[in-house]
Design goal:
Number of domains: 4
Structural class: alpha/beta
Number of helices: 22
Bound molecules: NADP nicotinamide-adenine-dinucleotide phosphate
Oligomer: single chain
Number of strands: 21
CATH topology of the largest domain: Rossmann fold
Strand content: 15-25%
Amino acid sequence: MKISPMIENAPFSPEQKNWLAGFFAGLHTQIAQNSNAGEQEALLPVHVFYGTQTGNSEAVAEDICAALTTGGMAPQLASLDDIELEDFANLDHVLIVISTYGEGEMPDNAQLFWDALSATDAPRLEHMHFSVLALGDTSYDGFCEAGKQLDLRLEQLGAKRMHARFDCDVDFEETAENWTTGVLEKVSEFKGQGGVAGAVAAAPAKKAEKSKWTRKNPFEAPLSVNRLLSGEGSAKEIRHFEIDLSNDGPQYEAGDALGVIPANDPALVEAWAQKLGVSLDDQAPGFDATIGEVLGTQLEISTPSADLMRLITARAEDEHLSHIWEHGDKDTIDNFLWSKDALDLVTLYPKAEVTLEDMLSVFKPLQHRAYSISSSSKMHTDSVHLTVAAVRYDSHGRKHGGVASTFLADRVAAGQPVKVFVSPNKSFRVPTDNDVPMIMVGPGTGIAPFRAFLQERQALGAKGMNWLFFGDQHASCDFIYQDELEAMQSDGILSRLDLAFSRDQAEKIYVQTRMMEQSKDLYAALEEGGHFYVCGDASRMAKDVDQALHNVIAKEGALTEDGAREYVNRLKKEKRYLRDVY
Ligand code: NAP
């Protein structure tokens, strides 16, 4: 069977490619027959929406659009917040790809849509046919919660599910492909029921330029720089890495993330071998590799999985543990697991007596780690930079380390290759208008994408004001990139720099303290069309900064709480309030 180049290059398995090729061949024949008969068939408009925090859902939605176009349909692609609910209510065929962010929350560019859809006065959607693809991570409590809620709400409003919701774990590709295949089949049943007769592929859906370098096919890039940024006396170890992308490496834009595929610490692999009484050179049962290879590069051997917790609880005969696992809320379980890795758990409960086979069945696949890129490719054409805090701590009598952060810091020698790929995040970009203010709030390693944004604006010759709020514990040792930032100030690139070193005085001073102090200027910058960006810790900092933004707007705009909320919602709608937080 002849496979079209589009299907050939799409991320489908050979069987799926064959199936799709046959499916589309059938559709094309049908179209040809209809037009031969002089009845030009209407192209079915299908609306594909995404809600994304890191760009994955958008990428999957683009793939679906490409498949729909090939199938003779007219896909229209947009983020959920791009559509007003009253317009949404007029649509007939709707596909939604949505990720879940944090602990079961909607991603930023779906929140306003969700607020409207979940309101009691939301319109009925009886004529709508829809399907939802939910992206998530089973290690979080609210696994795919955003997709589940959306799916349920659409059903409550009378919309008909044309295809079941599929929930994807971190390895989302295969499930996404299966959903796409199923959805295409269903959508094709509606062909001829809508659209403008004789319309030619109206699809404004952008054609996705796909990199050949993906999670499954990473680029092996030499690590060229590994430099400590934190100064003496710092409680942190923040490092600057440069990775060489010359020789056909992936392209990136400021705002994207870099996926790094790590290998586990050999010392931890050895410790597991000892604990389980196995030799690393032996064949791993059920795998096509040795135990050493499987534990070293294929499985997540540090972070305790829910399956491991279940296994230990079932066997340990420990009342306290059973109570925590069976009755504890998320905070109780998190507190219990704090600073314990999988080996600590197995060691703490020897009665559980785990075997190699047990562990191979409860370890999850080793995942890549995504880091916000801290360089602009317009300035660094052959390399990509990262700003990473190496996680290290002593606990339960052993040294513990973050898998990928210590992999980069300790285990990749200069010039040695690292497996990487770019995760595009098209929703997180410098302003398209070079003249508007760019306000960035990025404490700690949250500064990473803003170093990239500043370089980007410098390379673009943008004249708009650039304002950075940065902070960390101590000015003396945590003011990372100080020289660069000061040089950018002298060059006029960085128009304003407001610093908040939290532990240099008795009272904590945070970035939001500085925002409040500068509220007049901050509001003026927003009024000039400024874009407001936040990167870093989602659980506390981003929430407090959000509150501070509301306070600044209420104070300087003389608005009520509701008025300030509307103002912030308008910023979100206009894509002028963007966050890269987790
Ligand atoms: P951090 O732990 O967030 O600390 C940076 C500064 O923020 C410190 O001065 C800290 O003060 C202060 N801080 C603590 N609570 C705060 C609050 N509620 N509001 C404002 N500031 C607060 O810095 P980090 O070690 O570099 O970690 C950054 C965090 O961002 C990590 O959670 C990391 O995973 C995340 N991150 C996310 C992205 C992304 O989403 N792409 C990128 C980079 C980093 P005290 O400690 O003195 O209280």
